[in-house]
Amino acid sequence: MKIIWTFTLLMIPGVLSSISVTGYSGGGVSITCRYDRRYTDKNKYFCRGQWSSCSDLIKTDIKDKWVDSGRFSLYDDTTAAVFTVTIRDLREQDSGTYYCAVERSGIDSYTKVNLNVVTADCCQKSISLSAAAGGSVNISCRYPQSHSADVKFVCRRSGSDLCAEETSVKESRRWSAEGQMQLYDDREQQLLTGIISHVTQQHSAEYWCGVQSDPGHKSFITRVLVTVTDVQKTTSSPASVFNTSTSTITSESPNTLKGLYLIISLVLVLLVLIIIGVLLLVLYKKHQSRAGGDSSSQTGAEKHEVVSNTGCDYEEIKDSHKQLPTNPSVSPDCVYATAQLPTNPSVSPDCVYATVQKDTGDSQIFITSAEDLNYSVVNFQKKADCPEGVRLRNNQDYSEYAAVNHLTD
Fold it and tell me: Which of 338, 317, 328 is nearest to 393 (CA)?
């Protein structure tokens, strides 16, 4: 039926062909109309309505240059004998009948265009992306399932031309490399992916994802705004470096992301191992120091501290295994204390008595302590300015040390 209708139109004087175009709300369309080379110098125009009352939307006699009129643009390519009309910011009310026409003497020649504008719920109307210079930009656009078998493209806009630079892909699940842009069409997911590598400031522009059902027109579905920023040459703080690295990672390809994640994981594992090693080394050092302290306390039975009180030095005995001297020739300035167990059965067996004996004659001083003393031999030296008094001090219930002061009458 379509073939019969097209043949009928061609039989009418001035009618060249008829095409049907589908556009999407918020997007745009590009319509290509051919004409006879004899009319390259004639005016070209695009109108809407019935042919008998078609109102011009854009008309020009300018050749090989874009001409704008509101949302409409027209380019007359005299070399190829075609002119292209672009409609931007489509709305559903733009649906209707249009004509590409060439002005000439008699009846103008024209091509009938049936435009149908619909809303695609599957697709985004606009996307904004950014990347640092030298990085990559990932573009992902969905398209209606009805266009799964059609050619997909990403165009870069330049002024009135929505498709000044075009990269297209015709096969499913196969990368198509053209210049710096690569495209991948997953027809099962209805997803078009594009990657722009090693971006510079010149890549900051407006791009369009779209479909092409036939060579006569293109449907622009999603607008993509790309912004490329300069790489900062000054020294950045760790936080800014992390943020820059994160933004770069998000724009890398999947294989690059996996490699970066693997490197980061290895670095974290090494840091954890280093921390564990340091903690084990600290614990080992502490254990060694404690073992050394216990050993020194066991072998230092002869050590003691000197307690000073108003200039007098008293020796505080920590441990002693000395035996009482039995030789009377020992210096009379030494006083010895020997612990004796009580001989009186009525006395508690927990009591320990200390006998202090000064070898200066027959006199002896007996001091009895009700506390449990752990040491039985005490040696101290007397000074002239020491306070007069003999006192046994026990700081705890079961003291390991006894401090003795000398008292003289």
Answer: 317
What is the CB-side half-sphere exposure of residue 90 using CA atoms within 13 A? 28
Asked if the model's pLDDT at residue 90 lies above 60, the reply is: yes
Q: Report the candidate in 185, 173, 161, 168 with the shortest Cα–Cα distance to residue 77.
A: 161
Which alpha helices (H) appear in 142-253, and where do they start and end?
A: 238-250
* Average pLDDT over every residue of 226-243: 61
| Cα Rg of the chain, angstroms | 52
Amino acid letter for position 233:
K
Percent of the chain with pLDDT over 90: 49
Residues facing 356 on adjacent strands? 337, 365
State the chain's maximal CA–CA distance in angstroms.
161
- CA 388 – CA 409 distance, rounded (Å): 8
Quick one: the chain helix, strand, coil %, rounded to 5?
A: 20, 40, 40
- pLDDT confidence band for 40 (50 / 70 / 90): very high
359 or 344: whose pLDDT is higher?
344
The residue written with tokens 């564990």 in the block is: 276
- CA pseudo-torsion sign 144, 150, 156, 160: negative
- CA–CA dist 296, 288 (Å, integer): 12
Phi-psi region of 395 (alpha: psi -120 to 50; beta: other; left: phi over 0): alpha
250-264, 269-283, 326-340, 348-362 — most confident range = 269-283
Please state, in angstroms and rounded to a whole number, the distance separating the CA atoms of residues 360 and 409: 14
Torsion of CA 366, 367, 369, 370, to 10 degrees: 60
Query: Between the CA atoms of 201, 202, 204 and 208, what dihedral angle is there, to the nearest 10 degrees?
Result: -160
Residue 292 confidence class, pLDDT cut points 50, 70, 90: low
Pairwise CA distance, residues 331 & 316, whole Å: 21
State how far the Cα of 145 lies from the Cα of 83, in Å rounded to an integer. 30
